[in-house]
């Protein structure tokens, strides 16, 4: 999928929402990252068992309370497959389409998912699950995908046929490498604007008399993440998909979403997070590019996080969490952080710093981190269990990045 925003990539603004922007490394304040291998009671984490049973749950709870918010259960989720298998792309792939119903009332809150699998299936295949900014019919070049609805920039729901295509995702490239592809439109789960709660899944779960969730309850990112877990609920029932080898992929705010999903739902075997930036893989304490204060501003993206996130806008150092801890929650599963060397707004160096700081957790669990603390040049991928890749260019994913994604997936899911 092409999602490239030159205006942001070559950002020359000095402030956003009246809040200054720092693009000068010499002005990054002094900061200290907490040691994620120290329990809250001060004891060291020296064994995988202690990480899994004590420290990881502590960190997960902190991110639930202080950044993304707690999500409800999925007891009422159901599925309807309305296309079980159609040959497409010169008969190299099978297309499957289904609808996920998020509540008992199947007339309202629902989302369509399209899945492509290689036709030459001898055993369950690994799959890339992409959460997209556009409806399925605008995300993939396939005229027979069900036409849905979408939310425009004005917060109105319109037919998808009237929407904008960001660029078709190259499904065939993945299929030819033995990797399935599935996609879901994030707006079907929760519209991406402050009033979206009225139309999305969060509104359904509001407590009686409440117009907005409690400060420790879910923001929109957690809602999108919740929807991805619903997709996994279905994938576990699809005998042609290896549900233990599902890689999540998302860009920008959806990069944050897939990181949080991989952290809270360990059924996902891999995450590929593109330019996730502040609130994702970039260190908040660096105060470089977009900051917590920019994000939680009332005119911007406060609704994407739990209400508690607003406590840390003036001073990220007071927060008990930072991005390296979020990255650590993926361990020991493979994680690839993809970014761009001119995407200063998303702080590509800050993402690298977080990955370096997360390496001790990967090593504790017998996996390989980046193996270096030297920030690599653009187009120099580091592909271990923990990976980092910075293309030459700006915000998002470029078509040329797909080869790196495929190499990473094959390395961990196929060529073993």
From TrEMBL:
Organism: Mariniflexile soesokkakense
UniProt xrefs under Pfam families: GCE_fung
Entries under Gene3D superfamilies matching the protein: alpha/beta hydrolase
Alphabetic keyword roster: Hydrolase, Serine esterase, Signal
Name of the protein described by the UniProt record: Acetylxylan esterase
Occurrences of domain 4-O-methyl-glucuronoyl methylesterase-like (ranges): 212-366
